[in-house]
Design brief:
The structure holds two protein chains of two kinds. Chain A is an alpha+beta fold. Chain A is about 50% helix and about 15% strand. Chain A has one domain: Orthogonal Bundle (Cytochrome-c3 Hydrogenase, chain B), CATH 1.10.645. Chain A contains 15 helices and eight strands. Chain A is globular. In chain B, the strands form two sheets. In chain B, strands 2-3-5 form a three-stranded antiparallel beta sheet. The longest helix of chain B has 25 residues. The chains are: A alpha+beta, B alpha+beta.
């Protein structure tokens, strides 16, 4: 019989977390060099769900590529489609009717809340609390029902079209959205009491994985990761697009830089999104949802175009290089989670494995969006 | 020492708040549906796979123009039509939807100018054979009419 392996005091071993692991929220693999419970070195390995979305963009016509964008991020698909339609509209000079712009903003914000709710539930589950996930999913269900009634789909919406929208919203949707706002506000108070105030939760997260402004800048981190470290950057405010200048909302910024700060930013963002939806519903103008004059075949003039949008996970940019044909020459997608995730390797050195997984949860990773 | 006891006190408060929420939720109506026994009705605009729309005579509205096949990003649709002698329009003879490649984007329905395609409400699609997902829509239409 062989004797068990005895590790020397300073000997390290390699622990493989993923690619199929409940704590990594997808097919992310982390190679961790461990010294007991402490991480000496970590390396994130991606590419397990690479589907060549960028290459597909170079082979399909513009309208045919529309549905790919919602496959990138299964939790906040609207934001990604928004970036794509905006850049093509910018390139081909298509005017979008005002009603369509407002509906787009409302849809994107609803989707942002649903994404944050799912993240909230999954994050608390990572830390060992199960029931908040169920409450969060119950609230998210209301949003998905609303979106399904309008778009016909629950996750991969494919709702935006060049110049407008696929379907118009009806009064039923407006009523449902109006009913949803106070309900969500009530739920936020519940989450505040149940989770944010919970002493175990706070003790796990306070001072966990401190990120400095410099680290965030170095890696190009955006969204709650940057805003939790004191960087006041939100594409909706810094480079306004669509109808966002019309709305009155704040960008929550926390200076602590720990996982709790990132959590707080996202929870405050839900409230801000509710404010945007409220104003959007009040201001929603009547009119068409598709422009009267729209080119039959989309052929943007040759050139280089870029548009960034703020999705639930951060700054999503689309760079479109057109050579004047009906197929793009190059379509580069800048995905926010890719930048946010790479902070992990550097920051988790010296941390205990459970703290590192809490930190990973606070980054809000969606792996299909990293691999594209 | 004071901090130690205040922590225990706060911990107890957190515990009671959590239990309070659970207690309240316990008396709220159930929101889950016991799926195989109960099902929800799908939304009117639900996007399932496509089906052909028939005209008053029970024949498909489709004139086999092929716009849907060209609009499809994944090349799911194969169709054929022929012109009977003396007729003005083409008549559809074959319409195959390869659902294994379909991503339910709805481009085909949008591209149609003849009101020939609609979304079905079907979502219980499961099989162990790939061939089960190659739908002959013309045959499905005939079966519906029976």
């Amino acid at each position: 019989m062989s004797s068990p392996i005895q590790l020397q005091p300073d000997e390290t071993f390699v622990l493989n977390v993923g690619p199929q692991h409940p704590a990594t929220h997808g097919v992310l693999r982390v190679k961790m060099e461990m010294n007991g419970e402490y991480i000496v070195n970590a390396e994130t390995v991606i590419g397990y769900i690479h589907r060549m979305h960028e290459k597909m963009g170079e082979n399909k016509t513009y309208p045919q590529y529309l549905m790919n964008l919602s496959r990138m991020d299964y939790l906040g698909a609207m934001g990604y489609s928004h970036g794509h339609v905006l850049v093509v509209e910018k390139a081909s000079g298509i005017e979008v009717p005002e009603r369509a712009e407002y509906i787009r903003a409302i849809m994107v914000e609803l989707n942002r809340i649903s994404s944050h709710l799912f993240w909230f539930g999954a994050f608390v589950m990572d830390l060992g609390g199960f029931s908040p996930l169920m409450y969060a999913l119950q609230d998210r269900e209301h949003i998905l029902d609303m979106l399904e009634a309008v778009t016909g789909s629950r996750l991969t919406y494919c709702y935006f079209r060049f110049g407008g929208l696929y379907n118009d919203v009806d009064d039923e949707f407006v009523d449902a959205a109006r009913r949803f706002i106070p309900r969500m506000r009530k739920s936020l108070i519940k989450y505040e009491k149940l989770v944010t105030g919970n002493i175990i939760f706070r003790k796990r997260l306070e001072g966990n994985a401190l990120l400095s402004k410099e680290t965030c800048r170095k890696y190009g981190a955006t969204s709650a990761v940057a805003r939790g470290s004191g960087i006041n950057y939100d594409v909706r405010k810094n480079e306004p697009y669509s109808v966002y200048p019309e709305f009155d909302f704040d960008v929550p910024v926390y200076h602590e830089g720990d996982s709790l700060a990132r959590y707080m930013v996202r929870m405050d963002e839900i409230e801000q999104s509710l404010r945007i939806i409220e104003q959007g519903l009040d201001k929603l103008p009547d009119g068409p949802i598709m422009p009267a004059k729209k080119p039959k075949l989309i052929k943007p003039p040759a050139g280089d175009y870029y548009q960034a949008v703020e999705t639930a996970r951060g700054n999503f940019g689309v760079r479109l290089v057109s050579d004047g044909t009906k197929i793009p020459y190059r379509l580069k997608l800048r995905s926010p989670t890719f930048s946010n995730m790479h902070l992990f390797d550097e920051t988790c050195r010296g941390m205990m494995i459970m703290d590192a997984l809490a930190f990973m949860g606070s980054l809000d990773l969606v792996i299909p969006e990293i691999d594209r | 020492m004071v901090a130690y006891f205040s922590e225990i006190y706060n911990g107890l408060i957190s515990l009671f708040i959590g239990m309070g929420v659970t207690f309240k939720e316990f008396f709220k109506p159930t929101v889950t549906v016991q799926y195989p026994y109960e099902t929800l009705t799908m939304a009117d605009k639900y996007r399932g796979h496509v089906e052909l729309i028939e005209n008053d005579e029970g024949k498909p509205n489709c004139v086999a123009c092929g716009l849907c096949a060209r609009a499809c990003p994944s090349g799911c649709i194969t169709l054929a039509g022929e012109k009977p002698e003396g007729a003005k329009k083409k008549v559809l003879t074959r319409y195959i939807l390869d659902f294994t490649r379909c991503s339910l984007c709805g481009s085909c329905v949008e591209s149609c100018n003849f009101n020939a395609l609609e979304f079905s409400k079907e979502y219980n699609l499961a099989s162990t054979r790939k061939e089960d997902f190659i739908f002959d829509l013309l045959q499905r239409l005939e079966e519906r009419n029976k």
